Here is the input.
Amino acid sequence: MTTATDEIESATVAETHLKSSSVAVPLTLEPPPKANTGPLHGLWALTQRDLRKWYSNPIQLFISLIQPVIWMGVFGKALNFGTFIAQSGASPSVTNAIMLNTFGTTSYFSYLACGQLSFVILFTSAFSGMSVVFDRRFGFMNKALSTPVGRGTIVMAKVFQSVGRSVIQASIVLFIAVLLGMDTGYFSVLGIAEAFGVVFLMATGLSALYVMLALRSSDWQTQMALINLLNLPLIFASNALLPVKLMPTWLQYVVQVNPVSYANDAIRQLVIGAVGSSSLAVDAGVVLAFAVVLSTMGIVLSWRLLSK
Here is the structure.
């Protein structure tokens, strides 16, 4: 029989063996992996998050397309200037000459349809700022700011999700315009691709503008007021609906400094071959400068204004 003394000796031997084993096999501690703090870290994840909320809700996409379709189907077809001129007794050649001199094309509907692309860009870009406001209100912004993701990355993710939505919605609006009778005689793969390059740049600049205005805001009513304050002048003080030459002299000066006008002018030259107010190189340069300057300002301001 084992005695209590034997059990104590056995326990002592086991403890000694365990200590010797732990000394013989030292623990090796590996340094923790470094956090990825690169400028592009988290950009795709944040962009995809906002896009997923959009494409998983088809009703939101449908509603966003109603307004430009109504403008084209009702306003564009009602203001058939070519028919008005022809009814006054003008010959077809005279009618086409008047339309070409006024609108740069013989089809007002095609002129308006190109302007509706900027309409889509403006209202889609405006809600990129609303996304910032709601992220702040519901606490997601604080969580994002607590991660290694840079502040500039958060801003550009908001911009890129808005740009993606603008390009997709503009493609749908252009397709609907063709179904409603838009002139396709000047269509080309290169021209359409370049036109959507202009859409991309204009959407980038406008989205960056609205995101900047929302960096410190947590009140959606204030942001909506800013959207209404900016969007309507940017639309009506541009050549989206009517050519510049039909406007008062004082308004023409405003149109000439409105970047939306240059985007419209470039899109019309590329898509329907309209005679532009400026050369295509000037239009593209203005739109490119607008996108670069506003995006840079958005990133710089995010370093100073974007906080928990």
Summary: The mean pLDDT is 81. Residues 39-305 form one domain. The two ends are 72 Å apart (CA to CA).
